[in-house]
Amino acid sequence: MRFETLSVFPEVFAPYLDASIMGRAQRAGILDFAAHDLRDWTHDRHRTVDDAPFGGGQGMLMKPAPIFEAVEALSAEGPRPHVVFFSPCGRRYDQSCAEALSHEGRVLLVCGRYEGMDERAYELADDVFSLGDYVLTGGELAAMVVIDSVVRLLPGALGDAMSAKDESFSDGLLEYAQYTRPASYRGMDVPEVLLGGDHAKVDAWRRRSAVERTARWRPDLIEGADLTPDELALARAVMEGEGDHVL
């Protein structure tokens, strides 16, 4: 899969994407990445990408012309990319978005800066995403979040084919609680079922743990989760603070 970014700070991506899982994915040929400098599509000696907004107001806006020219030029180089912009007005980015993007062969992430982009530039977007209800200095961090969340879904990226399947949000729930050595620490013991070697019992415990953790930490996810009647009753009991639970 090929990811590309369009940014006024293309140099910020390499330190993260060349390390750990992202770096291994590139070396294995699973991820192909390129960072493009938006200023390469400017035509003045100052390589200007921003200007004052019409009607006045704070800050500067990114001009539409460099963005249009860059996306058009990059789209002419092989298969047209799936173009992604970031904006507070965009769809909230979640695991389903990552899964959808993982099926694209080529994705171009356009990173805004300053007070945002000229509204006309959004005509180029196939998707517009928001990471949440807060403001970042630029879209570069959002782009790295998207790349990381998608690449780990690609076959071979994590090494263990089941790793991504078991993670939080893969089935609408948070991931189950996990433990490692020592089995007892400061009076806190690992649940006995995890030490017994009965895989069926472990699987049942993990499912219950996932339901309980979701009900405790992210009750907003319960309504959309695929739960049995017993699991739904358990979730409601946790949300209401009733009964004895794994957590």
Automatic annotation (TrEMBL):
Main localization category: cytoplasm
Catalytic activity, as annotated: guanosine(37) in tRNA + S-adenosyl-L-methionine = N(1)-methylguanosine(37) in tRNA + S-adenosyl-L-homocysteine + H(+)
EC supergroup of this enzyme: transferase
Location in or out of the cell: Cytoplasm
GO molecular function term, any single one: tRNA (guanine(37)-N1)-methyltransferase activity
EC number in record: 2.1.1.228
Keywords (A to Z) from UniProt: Cytoplasm, Methyltransferase, S-adenosyl-L-methionine, Transferase, tRNA processing
GO BP terms, alphabetized: methylation
UniProt keyword Methyltransferase present: yes
List of residues binding S-adenosyl-L-methionine: 112, 131-136
Family: Belongs to the RNA methyltransferase TrmD family.
Record function comment: Specifically methylates guanosine-37 in various tRNAs.
Protein's recorded name: tRNA (guanine-N(1)-)-methyltransferase
Organism: Paratractidigestivibacter faecalis
Gene: trmD
